[in-house]
Design a protein that fits this description.
Elements lengths: L16 E9 L11 E9 L4 E5 L2 E3 L1 H8 L16 H7 L2 H12 L2 H144 L13 H13 L13 H9 L13 H4 L24 E5 L13 H16 L1 H10 L17 H11 L3 E4 L8 H16 L4 H19 L2
Parallel strand pairs: 5-6
Antiparallel strand pairs: 1-2, 2-3, 3-4
Helix pairs in contact: 8-9, 11-12
Length: 469
């Protein structure tokens, strides 16, 4: 049947099926359906499967064949005879001609039903034979089953006997437990007497304990007073040592930015190790990470902290971390009095007007700057839409919704002193790069902290000297 499916041409794609339908007038209801018009269709697929439909409803091939029985238009019908079929009928075998006459006589349907019934009777006969075989096999099992039944009856008898023995055992256990209970009651009386004596001793010990507790409270108060005196003395000691360090620094010639000592490098090492040991990746992989990676991990809730400024809000907002959970955290390094300081604040951005530009361009630039810091539209765009922190007095009513900016304001309102942002004290960009390389080598395990200290202290002096020759 695959030959009748269109295989395609150079300009048309092949089809996956072939479809044929025939429509018959059934106004005289010769076909055993209630429709006046009957359309029989078939769809053949390349896989060999077929679909049959009568008036658009799916049906079986058998339904189509039964519809045309005794109508003369079936497979062996006489209503439609192809070219050369008449000679074939006349010269054919008697059996072949008989099929045509049966169709014309209208008995094909009954003969087919008869054949189907005979087939079903033959199948039932086979089923009956199998039933006889099964009965024969079951009859052979009757003897062994009778023996098993006798065994089961003996088992049930022994089971009833066992139940009786179990009941007797339960009664014996009950009498024994009752006897043991009487002995336990006697022992309980003895224990109750001992408990009463123990309670009297407990009350005596409790009274003595209360007296000892009152005495210890007096000692605790004395210890607290002594501890407060010690703390005050320790603070005074730190103050004096701080003054001493200042004097030593001046004596060593480190009173200016031409050299530094690295007094708090050990404290910084603890902070750096804390970063490394609690990072989202192995220390050896830090060099492959970027600032975008840190912002992404924090935004998705994979990291609880990363070092950045208020400007990072636009990179982390509208993600997994809620705004009410965001905040700013100052990093203290152990300097005396730094607990009174807040966040590091400052900017590297400046507004400049080129004096060499035309007067028209200079005035246009000044007008634009005035519009930005004074007009409602400009202030809204700068503070709310762009989220910038602005130092101008005209922005008192245009504070940004940035929760990081609000956190910085809370530190200031709490009396914390902002730390100025002084990058200009570094001797050179090369000093910062060399120090960063030493820290990276230490993090990856290819360098030591001594190398970091050398890059920090000696590197500063070398770069300062080179920059001030």
């Amino acid at each position: 049947m695959e030959d009748v499916i269109f295989s395609g041409t150079e300009s048309r794609k092949p089809l996956g099926f072939a479809y044929v339908a025939i429509t018959l007038d059934n106004s005289d209801h010769q076909l055993a359906v209630e429709y006046d018009t009957v359309t029989v269709s078939r769809r053949v697929y390349r896989s060999g499967e077929s679909e049959y439909k009568i008036n658009g409803h799916n049906c079986r091939l058998k339904d189509v064949q039964e519809l045309f029985f005794d109508t003369g238009i079936g497979k062996e019908g006489y209503s439609i005879i192809g070219q050369g079929q008449i000679d074939k009928i006349l010269s054919g075998k008697p059996e072949e001609r008989r099929e045509l006459f049966d169709e014309a006589a209208g008995i094909v349907k009954y003969k087919r039903r008869k054949a189907l019934t005979e087939k079903n009777l033959a199948e039932e006969q086979q089923n009956l034979s199998r039933v006889r075989d099964i009965l024969y096999e079951l009859e052979k099992q009757v003897g062994p089953l009778e023996k098993q039944s006798e065994t089961a009856r003996i088992y049930l008898k022994h089971r009833d006997t066992l139940k009786q023995y179990d009941a007797n055992m339960y009664l014996l256990s009950f009498y024994q437990l009752k006897k043991d209970s009487a002995a336990i009651d006697e022992k309980m009386d003895i224990v109750s007497t001992q408990l009463k004596d123990s309670q009297e001793n407990f009350e005596k010990i409790k009274s003595a304990y209360a007296q000892m507790e009152a005495l210890m409270e007096q000692y605790d108060q004395k210890i607290s007073q002594d501890q407060e005196v010690c703390n005050q003395q320790a603070l005074e000691k730190q103050r004096l040592e701080g003054g001493k360090n200042v004097l030593v620094s001046k004596t060593d010639g480190i009173s200016s930015t031409d050299a530094i000592k690295g007094t708090y490098l050990d404290n910084y090492k603890q902070i750096w190790d804390l970063y490394l040991n609690n990072s989202t990746c192995e220390p050896s992989m830090i060099s492959s990470k970027t600032g975008d990676d840190a912002a992404s991990e924090f935004s998705l809730g994979e990291a609880v902290f990363y070092q950045n400024g208020t400007w990072a809000y636009n990179d982390i907002k509208d993600n997994e971390v809620a705004e009410e959970d965001m905040g700013m955290l100052p990093i203290y390094i152990g300097v005396d009095g730094e607990e009174n300081q807040g966040l590091c604040t400052g900017s590297e951005n400046y507004w400049c007007v080129n004096k060499n530009a035309s007067e028209e361009d200079i005035q246009a630039t000044l007008d634009f700057m005035k519009w930005v810091v004074e007009s409602d539209e400009g202030r809204d765009m700068l503070a709310n839409q762009m989220g910038f922190v602005t130092p101008f007095t005209t922005f008192a009513d245009y504070l940004p919704d940035n929760p990081l900016v609000k956190a910085n304001a809370e530190y200031t309102e709490a009396g914390k002193t902002p730390v100025s942002w002084n990058f200009t004290t570094m001797p050179s960009e090369n000093w910062k790069n060399n120090l960063g390389g030493a820290l990276l080598n230490y993090a990856q395990g290819t360098g030591t902290w001594d190398s970091v200290q050398t890059a920090f202290v000696d590197g500063w002096a070398e770069e300062y000297a080179a920059a001030n020759e």
